[in-house]
Write a structure and sequence with these properties.
Layout (H helix, E strand, L loop, with lengths): L12 H12 L8 H15 L11 H8 L3 H13 L3 E4 L3 E4 L20 E2 L8 H19 L12 H14 L8 E4 L2 H12 L5 E5 L4 H10 L2 E5 L1 E2 L2 E2 L1 H7 L5 E6 L13 H13 L3 E5 L13 H4 L4 E6 L11 E4 L5 H11 L5 H13 L1 H24 L12 E6 L2 H13 L2 E2 L1 E2 L12 E6 L6 H18 L1
Parallel strand pairs: 3-14, 5-6, 5-9, 9-10, 10-11
Antiparallel strand pairs: 1-2, 4-12, 7-8, 11-12, 13-16, 15-16
Helix pairs in contact: 1-3, 2-4, 3-4, 5-13, 6-13, 7-8, 7-12, 14-16, 15-16
This protein binds pyridoxal-5'-phosphate.
Length: 472
């Protein structure tokens, strides 16, 4: 909502009401008014504008300010009460309990009807990869079976850490040479990083449209998220500086390579500017690099520029297969204990069979082979997309597995998604990635890796192209 909101205890009630009223304009007019008012109040609570224990303005004042009747305000407040965000105290008013609400449903909800060609989420579909994994199955199951009888250190045992280092070297990623933890995938690494360096009520900054898993973890941990404007090179340094005036801001989530969903890969200059600002303000960076193993050139990271303040992670999901829950997290050494605690307190230890698959993949060379197949498939599919959608729509790097198709407005992006769903093609629209209501850019995200083969990919692209041209 308001990216520069501060906790302002000295504001008069009139100023508070005026501010709340102005936030209503940023909510979507497609929603019922009681829900929009509830959304304004809950996001003000999550941003820390209202703190736990603080009293909300009276029903009557809220009704006057939002220009609605008392029944509507009661409905809004009941909505928040039912979810434990506020509580009513007879004769006294409404007090904030302090829990944040996120009105965006997680995007991996199973849709009512699964589209025939579901490109809304990454899936490993390649027969060549499946047969490599099937051939190795007896080996990795045998190796895990002898190890499933015991616990092991929360952030990874010697075997798993060796596996992580071997993969790190194979990819040429020096970022993960030291202070390493093995996690159950990148989402788990993200959760650990957030839990290790932030506390309930702290705020994380993120691009206006962002990987939805960040929103889920932040919600779970009671963290506020505030958006930072982006341009075609990612987070705008001046906008980042402005957001740092809010003393609750502790960290920035960033994907300098193959950003999800926008596919932006930041220039060297932009990385340097972001790292410089982060260093100057002791801002912690949470750097998600899940797609970088797809690159064939030596893309760098923010962790290389600012190792003492950056949590950095990636996993096997996007380059090998998502069901193998193996992630690698490099953290600033000062956070070693906090990382071990967060790992222990979340899943204790990644699951053994996934670790065994990862070890086999990395030691046998099968992982490298699958990576090559995945890159080659992505490049071939990119070329097909270039032919069918036209080159002007594809600004993204060809090895990446996402395509981001820009649309003028959120409504158009949603309409496009609905039209495609009705024709059997699943994609994601920008609304699920947004923080606040008015973020830009808008578009649809397409996982090119998720089509079962090139014929299916062509069918999906022709459907997308025809709908896109009808709408433009
Ligand atoms: C940007 C980003 N980070 C993290 C993840 C989660 O990856 P994992 O399957 O390793 O938990 C995803 C999955 O979609 C992602 O797109």
């Amino acid at each position: 909502m308001d990216s520069n909101s501060q906790n302002i205890p000295t504001q008069s009630e009139e100023e508070v009401l005026k501010h709340l009223r102005s936030c209503l304009d940023e909510t979507s007019e497609d929603q019922a008014i009681y829900f929009r008012i509830a959304a304004v109040l809950s996001s003000k609570i999550s941003e820390g504008y209202f703190e736990a224990g603080e009293w909300l303005p009276s029903h009557r004042s809220l009704a006057r300010s939002f220009d609605v009747n008392l029944t509507t305000i009661t409905k809004s407040l009941n909505y928040l009460k039912d979810r434990g965000v506020i509580s009513a105290q007879a004769g006294k008013g409404t007090v904030v309990r302090g829990r944040a609400l996120d009105h965006t449903p997680p995007s991996y909800d199973v849709p009512d009807v699964t589209p025939e060609i579901d490109l809304s989420v990454h899936t490993q579909t390649l027969d060549a990869v499946k047969s490599i994994l099937q051939d190795g199955a007896s080996e990795f199951f045998a190796s895990a079976t002898s190890e499933i009888y015991s616990y092991y250190p929360a952030a990874g045992d010697t075997h798993s850490l060796d596996t992580a280092r071997k993969w790190t070297r194979l990819l040429g990623f020096e970022e993960t040479e030291s202070s390493l933890a093995v996690t159950a995938g990148a989402q788990h690494a993200l959760l650990i990083a957030l839990s290790a360096c932030m506390q309930r009520g702290d705020v994380i900054l993120a691009p206006t449209v962002v990987y939805q898993g960040l929103k889920s973890s932040a919600k779970m941990l009671g963290l506020g998220i505030l958006p930072v404007q982006i341009d075609e090179d990612g987070i705008i340094p001046d906008e980042l500086e402005k957001s740092l005036r809010n003393p609750r801001v502790k960290a920035l989530f960033v994907m300098p390579n193959f950003d999800n969903p926008t596919t932006i890969t930041m220039s060297k200059e932009r990385r340097a500017a972001i790292a410089r600002i982060a260093k100057a303000h002791s801002l912690i960076l949470i750097e998600d690099d899940v797609y970088r193993p797809l690159a064939t050139d030596d893309l760098t990271s923010l962790r290389r520029l600012y190792p003492e303040g950056t949590f950095y992670f990636y996993s096997l999901s996007k380059v090998i297969t998502p069901g193998c829950r193996f992630g690698i997290l490099a953290y600033p050494p000062a956070f070693a204990n906090a990382v071990a605690t967060a790992s222990r307190g979340s899943v204790w230890m990644p699951e053994r069979y996934s670790l065994a698959i990862a070890r086999w993949l990395i030691q046998s060379g099968a992982g490298r082979e699958i990576l090559k197949i995945t890159r080659k498939t992505n490049v071939t599919r990119h070329e097909i997309a270039r032919q069918i959608l036209g080159p002007q729509l594809l600004q993204t790097r060809e090895e990446g597995n996402i395509i981001w198709l820009p649309m003028a407005t959120e409504a158009q992006a949603k309409q496009m998604k609905d039209r495609l769903a009705a024709r059997g093609v699943g994609v994601s629209a920008s609304d699920v990635f947004k923080i606040g209501e008015n973020g830009q850019p808008d578009g649809i995200r397409i996982y090119k890796s998720s089509a079962k083969n090139e014929d299916e990919w062509r069918i999906a692209l022709r459907t997308i192209a025809s709908q896109f041209h009808q709408m433009n």
